[in-house]
Structure prediction request, 138 residues.
Amino acid sequence: MTLTEVRRVLSDTGARLEGNEPDVPLNECAYLKSQRLPSGIGLMFSQGRVVRIDVFEPFTKTSTGAGAGDSEDRIKKLYPGRIQVAPHPYVDEGHYLMYTPTPRAEPQFGMVFETDGRRVTSFRVGTLDAIALIEGCS
Prediction:
């Protein structure tokens, strides 16, 4: 979706992109700032389009019901054979549970579930390039 489309969906004409400067050009990476965006959700834009959704609260789930608070085992059961486990770069015992879709699904998209070693603390979905960014736009 474009910024214009997101503004329309949120009914927020004042929604804007924020980054390391007051006015972020549409071709750069930035996050949406809107009073209408639910708490615990981040929308990352690049090249003028949403490329990633960050989820930090347990009330938002994937289409299969996965979300923050789930155990690592539950994520692996929900996505059998699709999860690769990697060490979390900042949490000593944590992991990245990386979901890769089947080749015939949408191979340019994926998900990363961040864990503390036992439970999901957050997750992100989007293009493979966008979800690979560990610190968002930084």
About this structure: The two ends are 22 Å apart (CA to CA).
